[in-house]
Request: fold
Amino acid sequence: MDVERNLLLLVWFVCITTIYFLVPRAKAHEFVLCFLVCQAVGWIVEVLLVQFDLVAYPLREFPKASDLNITFKVVWTPVASVYSIIFLSVRCLASWFFRDRKVFRKEANER
Reply:
């Protein structure tokens, strides 16, 4: 059980550290909104899966209170989802900005 608990602690540490260092202050409100939406959807799906005995977790943070694994379904999954949503949005913005490459080639030739 020590290996599993250490893995849970590592996941918490990685999530908190990446949130602190990788989320820019300007996008903090977007991060929080995406995180909470992903967390709500994940929580509802997970509760249904556990209640209908479709999934069982041998290691849980609060075994007497809930059959859910809080770390992976409420913390890890939303953090990973938010990062994919924010990189996706950056890619869409960059592709929109550079949609007309002739303009940038013209400016480069003028220098």
Summary: The mean pLDDT is 80.
